[in-house]
Amino acid sequence: MFPRTIAQALLGLMVAFQALAMDEGIDYVKLKTPQATETGDKVEVLEVFWYGCPHCYTLEPFIDRWVDTMPESAEFRRMPAVLGAHWEPHARAFYAAELLGVTHKLHHPLFKAMHDEKRKILTKDDLVAFAAEQGIDRQEFQEAYDSFFVNMKVRRATDMVQRYGIDGVPALVINGKYRTSATQTGGNARLMEVLDELVRRETGGTAAGGS
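The structure corresponding to this sequence follows.
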């Protein structure tokens, strides 16, 4: 067995090697202009997604596992991407559910319905009907969907997608400074490793949660 000091030194070298193996411009991009976050003193981890994206659905289990073990210094948020007019209904549905406090009733079920069950849930009427299927009050959901709050959130999401330089989903933005994706890292498992390292950097070297 190695002496404790040697084992600690080797662990430090391994961590340093992993950090060096993560390349800026390949595994992640550092934003030219850092963006404000909404998580106060905590490191913001933002998932940018679209319900119509099969890759976003594939990423969900990885994200869920990461959130379950993320460090106390981090906080996770989701933001629906609006990269075209046909993406807006899904963004409105997400924010309507958020306003009503029923995101848990809509988010995963909508992904599952669209990708496992191959249902076309694309329009406002489709989404209102689907929300009702999940036990969400139809009238309340429709009013939230058309509300000032949702209008404001959709406008901001549209603006932030541009500020982050996002042209495809899913994408992760860490603390308003870094953008990464499975396309850049070569897969979801590696994406979680890159996420851990970027969170670690933003917490001054404190170990991040595992994937």
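Residues 112 and 118 are 8 Å apart (CA to CA).
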